[in-house]
Amino acid sequence: MPVKVYTMSDLHVDYHGNMQHLLNLNHPDYADAALIVSGDCSDNLDKLTQLLRHFKTIFAEVFFVPGNHELWVRDSKHAHSIDKFESILRLCQNLGVHTQPVKIGSGEHSVWIVPLFSWYTKPGEGDDNLFEHKDGNDITEEIWSDNRFCRWDTLASGQSVVDYFLALNTQHVERQYDAPVISFSHFLPLKELSFAIGFLDNGPKHFIDPLPEFNFTRVAGTSRLAAQIKQAGSVMHIHGHQHRNRHRDIDGITHISHCLGYPKERQNPHWRGTNLPKQVWHDGKIDVEQPF
Ligand SMILES: [Fe+2]
Ligand SMILES: [Fe+2]
Questions:
Q1: Cα of 186 to ligand 2 centre, how many Å?
Q2: Cα 69 to middle of ligand 1, angstroms
Q3: pLDDT tens profile 184-198
Q4: Ligand nearest to the CA of 244
Q5: Dist. CA 67 → ligand 2 center (Å)
C-alpha cells in the first residue's frame, strides 16, 4: 500500500474557528495516511482530546508531541509541567496516538516516524541556544506566557528542561532504523529556520514586524536537537512553534514547518500556507513544493 504522510502544527484550537475548521476536516486521501501533529494544540486537555480523537477517525495513524502550550499548568489539575507532560503521553496512548517511533507502510515504501521531545535554551543558558540579536527587543520577555504558566520545580537539581526532554529521545536516536526516518519536534533545531531565506540580509527593509518588542529566537529551540536529528539519520525533520512555514534543505535533511497558526496571522498578506494538512511524503519520497 502506498504510504502518505501529512503534517500540521500549531493548531491552537482555543480559537473556536480553528477548532471548528479542524473538526470539519476530512478527505478520502487521509484514510490510508499518517498525520504528524508537531505540538501546540491547546493547554486544555479536553480540547486536545477532542481534536486528537477526531484525527484518529479520519487518518490511519496519528503522531503527536506536546508543544509549549500543552505544558502550561494554568487552569489545570496539574501542579507541574512534567506531570502534565506525562499525563499527555498517557492520554495519547489511550487514544492510540503515537508518541514513540513507529514504522508505517511495508516493503520499499515503509518509513519510520520518530517523535522527538524538546524545549528551548534561552540566551545565557547554554551555547545550544538559537539566539539572534534584534534591536529593541524586551529582554524581560513579559509577553512570553511560558514564563508564567510553566512550572519546572520537579526537575532534578542541575537538570535543565532541555536536558530532561532530550534524554527521553536518546534511545530512539541511538538505534538503527531499517527504513527512511522522518523525525519531528515542536521546537526548532537550527537558528536559520527562524528566518525566511535572505531575511537576515534584507528583512528589515521588506518586512513589517508585528511584534517589534519580541525576539522569538530567545525561545526558539536548541541546536542539541539538530545533533539528535542527525544521529537518528533523518531524511526529513518537521518542526512547529514559530508560526512561519518553511521548506529548507540543510546538510542533506529537508526541514518542514507547516502551521495553522492564529486566525489573525492568516489574515496577514505575507502569510504563506494553507489551512489544510500538508502532504510531505508519498511512495517512499519527499513530496513537497519548492523551498522557501
Ligand atoms: Fe504555537
Ligand atoms: Fe510553540
A1: 7
A2: 7
A3: 999 999 999 998 776
A4: 1
A5: 5
The pLDDT of residue 201 is: 55
Ligand nearest to the CA of 67: 2
Instruction: Report the pLDDT value the prediction gives residue 208, as an integer from 0 to 100.
Output: 59
Ligand 1 center to 187 CA (angstroms) = 10
Mind listing the domains of the chain with CATH numbers? 4-286 (3.60.21.10)
Residues less than 5 Å from ion ligand 2, measured at CB: 40, 67-68, 241
What does pLDDT average to in each consecutive run of 10 residues of the chain (292 residues)?
88 98 96 97 98 98 98 92 97 98 92 98 96 78 89 94 98 97 98 78 55 85 98 98 92 96 88 88 79 50
Which amino acid would we find at residue 163?
D
pLDDT digits (tens, 9 = 90+) for 199-251: 555 555 445 566 777 789 999 999 999 999 999 999 999 999 999 889 999 99
The predicted structure's pLDDT at residue 133: 86
Q: Which ligand is nearest to the CA of 241?
A: 2
Per the CB < 8 A criterion, the answer to whether 75 and 44 are in contact is yes
Q: What's the CA-to-centroid distance between 241 and ligand 1, angstroms?
A: 5
Amino acid at 229: I
Ligand having the closest approach to the CA of 186: 2
Ligand 1 centroid–CA 155 distance in Å is 24
